[in-house]
């Protein structure tokens, strides 16, 4: 146990200066201490000061003396997201870093309050923790444009690098919406789409694209065998079991996935422990992006088979899917939140096991059934238009790895 | 006895503008947000209290591992600046028990308040973090040691009764039970009869089965032996 202290460092000064960025909230009273002699974990206490109702995300930078450390996200847990004023705690696990060869004699952290980022970008070519491996794009970034129905849309994200070497996720704020479809909706499958109020209590990031084949290759080290080959096409022919591991459904294992599964590898290579599939409700909330219509550009279907509005939004039989199969991700218009391909292309796997009838009672953070197969959402390349509506739900078995199935990932901020 | 209503007021650091200070008063009365003991962020610690009714004098005792100071107040005062250490940053960590006794004109005790303060390295600039499995420094103890405990580590939401048991191999056993569910224990080794050797430490909580064990060594040459 080292008890001799070195020269004063600007530990908190940085925190205070950066903290002032977020609506007057500040961070102070940072205390770092390893749990000697009990464990190698490090407690990091801090105080967030702000007005009642303040919620802030914090970022943590670690240093040994003046040397900046590459610390993967999964080395930290605790009060990082949606933090409210008061005494707060983080736990740092140094064993999840590459700094296990020499003691850090002057470990310190800078905790700063961040404006809520709009995008999270993971460079899949870089190892976890490396400088620039994870980038956040904030409001005001020169790359964002506001035009027409879009606000702060990152238009250049359709460049191929963001479909292959990088994984881009959009921030979605917690909120309440009406899940399901009204009785009047054309093409409605009534037994599956009871309209009811859903509240999601946690912000999350959701991938703006379905997982592509090249991204899959970066993450797993193996090029996938897909029915519709193409590096920027979505990874098809994948099952829930492939993604989470056999028996590792949400009810059985919660957030735990099996070693060797895709999500296990994704978490390992990115250092982000909370990547998972979207829940049924998270998917629809992100798909709708505030709309209440059948399609996420604010329109309803005019025809259940082929629809002019859907032609702009996604791949289905009527927009070329019947002969061409899946489309390169991002080939169609995004929704208002900048999320692509939420209609069609591939049925997207959700975390929940399916409950057919959703009822009409308001629910918070719904969790689906305890057994059965996973929910899939919003149609595929060969479907008629009505299968691709925002409210459309389906299900499959956990082992189904057919050419109709794909997925995207989310990172729920808890 | 009841908790002393100390207010540790923020004081500007005198050393460097780069150092930050606590920006809010910290009330040490058990209702603070702080889960640990009150942590000192400055070497000058303004203490504040309400003078007890009928008291004609008060006695403030601040007891740390390396010494105790006692200050008498013979007239009504409600604050006192305690210089916790002389340098700009502390040269060693320590924990302090504070006691403020109020007496009436018959020398009867009319109020007795207590508080606890911690001076830890990581509140001032940086702290040592050792993630080396074969570290030679990790299992060592010297003359004093600050041992943290926190019921939250045990993974239970209602964990009570933390205690640290120190057992010297072939020697004395000391059980230290704590009222707080989290905080620090100041283990004074020098001039306390512990001597040198191997010590087995156990942290346990009354309501859960999780326990933490460690083995540390105090030796004349500081050679580490092992840790588990």
Structure at a glance:
The complex is a heterodimer of chains A (414) and B (228). Chain A is of the alpha+beta class and 414 residues long.
Walk me through what this model shows.
The complex is a heterodimer of chains A (414) and B (228). Chain A is α+β, with helices and mostly antiparallel strands and 414 residues long. In chain A, 14% of the residues lie in helices and 27% in strands. Chain A contains nine helices and 22 strands. In chain A, strands 9-8-12-15-22-16 form a six-stranded antiparallel sheet. In chain A, a hairpin with a 2-residue loop joins strand 10 and strand 11. In chain A, 52% of the residues are buried. By secondary structure, chain B is an all-beta fold. Chain B is built from no helices and 17 strands. In chain B, the strands form five sheets. In chain B, strands 1, 4, 6, 7, 9 and 10 form a six-stranded mixed sheet that branches. A four-stranded antiparallel sheet of chain B has the order 14-13-16-17, with no helix packed on it. In chain B, strands 2-3 form a two-stranded antiparallel ribbon. The N and C termini of chain B lie far apart (39 Å). Chain B has two domains: 123 residues, Immunoglobulin-like, CATH 2.60.40.10; 75 residues, Immunoglobulin-like. In chain B, 0% of the residues lie in helices and 44% in strands. In chain B, a hairpin with a 4-residue loop joins strand 13 and strand 14. The chains are: A alpha+beta (414), B mainly beta (228). At the A-B interface, helix 1, strand 1, strand 2, strand 6 and strand 7 of A face strand 11, strand 12 and strand 17 of B. Strand 7 of chain A pairs antiparallel with strand 11 of chain B, so a sheet runs across the interface.
């Amino acid at each position: 146990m080292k008890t001799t202290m070195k020269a004063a460092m600007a530990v908190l000064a940085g925190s205070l200066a950066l903290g002032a960025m977020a609506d007057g909230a500040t961070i102070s009273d940072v205390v770092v201490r390893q749990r000697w002699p009990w464990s190698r974990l490090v407690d990091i206490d801090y105080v967030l000061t702000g007005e009642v109702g303040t919620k802030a995300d914090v970022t943590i930078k670690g240093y040994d003396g003046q040397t900046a450390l590459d610390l993967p996200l999964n080395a930290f847990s605790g009060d990082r997201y949606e933090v409210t004023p008061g005494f707060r705690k983080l736990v740092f696990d140094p064993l999840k870093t590459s700094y296990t060869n020499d003691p850090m004699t002057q470990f310190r952290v800078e905790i700063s309050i961040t404006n809520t980022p709009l995008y999270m970008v993971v460079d899949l070519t870089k190892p976890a923790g490396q400088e620039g491996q994870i980038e956040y794009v904030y409001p005001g970034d020169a790359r964002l444009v506001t035009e027409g129905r879009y606000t702060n849309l990152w238009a250049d994200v359709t460049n191929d690098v963001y479909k292959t070497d990088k994984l881009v996720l959009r921030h979605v704020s917690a909120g309440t919406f009406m899940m399901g479809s009204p009785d009047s909706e054309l093409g409605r499958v009534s037994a599956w789409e009871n309209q009811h109020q859903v509240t999601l209590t946690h912000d999350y990031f959701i991938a703006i694209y379905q997982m592509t084949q090249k991204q899959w290759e970066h993450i797993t080290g193996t090029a996938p065998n897909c029915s519709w080959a193409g590096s920027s096409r979505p990874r098809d022919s994948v099952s829930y079991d492939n993604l989470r591991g056999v028996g590792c459904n949400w009810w059985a294992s919660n957030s735990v996935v099996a070693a060797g599964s895709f999500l296990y590898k994704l978490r390992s290579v990115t250092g982000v422990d909370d990547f998972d599939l979207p829940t049924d409700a998270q998917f629809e909330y992100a798909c709708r992006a505030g709309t209440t219509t059948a399609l996420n550009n604010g329109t309803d279907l005019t025809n259940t088979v082929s629809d002019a509005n859907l032609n702009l939004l996604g791949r289905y039989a009527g927009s070329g899917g019947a002969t061409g199969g899946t489309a390169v991700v991002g080939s169609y218009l995004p929704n208002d939140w900048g999320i692509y391909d939420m209609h069609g292309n591939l049925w997207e796997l959700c975390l929940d096991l399916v409950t057919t009838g959703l009822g009409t009672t308001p629910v918070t953070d719904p969790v689906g059934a305890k057994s059965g197969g996973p929910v899939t959402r919003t149609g595929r390349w060969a479907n008629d238009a009505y299968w691709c509506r925002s409210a459309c739900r389906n299900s499959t078995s956990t082992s189904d790895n057919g050419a109709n199935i794909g997925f995207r990932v989310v990172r729920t901020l808890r | 006895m009841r908790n002393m209503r100390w207010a540790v007021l923020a004081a500007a650091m005198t050393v460097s503008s780069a150092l930050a200070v606590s920006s809010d008063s910290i009330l040490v009365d058990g209702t603070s947000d702080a889960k640990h003991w009150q942590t000192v962020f400055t070497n000058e610690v303004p203490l504040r209290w309400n003078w007890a009714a009928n008291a004609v004098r008060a006695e403030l005792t601040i007891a740390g591992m390396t010494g105790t100071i006692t200050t008498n107040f013979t007239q009504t005062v409600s604050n006192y600046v305690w210089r916790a250490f002389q340098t700009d940053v502390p040269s060693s960590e320590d924990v302090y028990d504070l006691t403020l006794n109020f007496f009436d004109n018959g020398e009867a005790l009319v109020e007795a308040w207590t508080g606890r303060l911690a001076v830890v390295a990581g509140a001032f600039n940086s702290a040592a973090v050792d993630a080396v499995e074969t570290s030679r420094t990790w299992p060592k103890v010297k003359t004093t040691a600050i041992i943290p405990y926190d019921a939250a580590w045990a993974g239970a939401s209602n964990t009570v009764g933390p205690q640290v048991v120190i057992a010297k191999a072939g020697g004395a056993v000391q059980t230290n039970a704590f009222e707080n569910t989290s905080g620090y224990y100041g283990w004074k080794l020098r001039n306390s009869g512990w001597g040198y050797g191997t010590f087995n430490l156990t942290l346990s909580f009354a309501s859960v089965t999780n326990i933490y064990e460690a083995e540390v060594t105090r030796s004349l040459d500081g050679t580490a032996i092992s840790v588990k």
